Amino acid sequence: MSDPESHAFENVDKSKILRAGVRGRCPECCEGALFEGFLKFASECQACGYDYHKNDIADGPAVFVILAASILVVPFALAFQIKVDAPVWLTLLVFIPAIIFVCLILLRPFRGLMFAMQVMNNAAPAEYDDDDED
Ligand SMILES: [Zn+2]
To answer: Which residues surround ligand 1, an ion (CB under 5 A)?
Structure first.
């Protein structure tokens, strides 16, 4: 049984929706802008009117971005520390800004991707009905 409020994404190319999210486009129509600032979501799609407030990804993408940035940068920091035999303060001085830079680059596409996944899967916060208690 399908929810009449849900979108029928079964017959839609899901990779197109995910690519739209990564590119910062509306997952509903793949045309309108998803962001109105660097990381702030717009209130609704300018092309199709989809209300972006229906979905909330919170800080979920930040966790994945931190993991990805660490996987990308830490090996270079370790290699730099071992090969150059640099003092720890120099390694930190070079690679902490590098991790921050990589996080800033990855955060927007990850936010768009996670938002598109949430829309595509009709994910929503759990709702509890107090009338069902025994
Ligand atoms: Zn749209």
So the answer is: 26, 28-29, 32, 45, 47-48, 50
Tokens found for residue 59: 């800080």
For the chain, first and last CA: distance in Å? 26
Taking the centre of ligand 1 as the mean of its atom positions, its distance from the CA of residue 17, in whole angstroms, is: 11
- Amino acid in the structure at residue 123: A
pLDDT per residue over 80-121, tens digit each?
A: 999 998 899 999 999 999 999 999 999 999 999 999 999 988
DSSP annotation of 110 reads: H
Enter the pTM of the model. 0.78
Q: Of 12, 5, 38, which Cα lies nearest the Cα of 27?
A: 12
Q: 42-50 — which CB contacts under 8 Å span 24+ positions?
A: 50/26
pLDDT digits (tens, 9 = 90+) for 22-78: 999 999 999 999 999 999 999 999 999 999 988 888 888 999 999 999 999 999 999
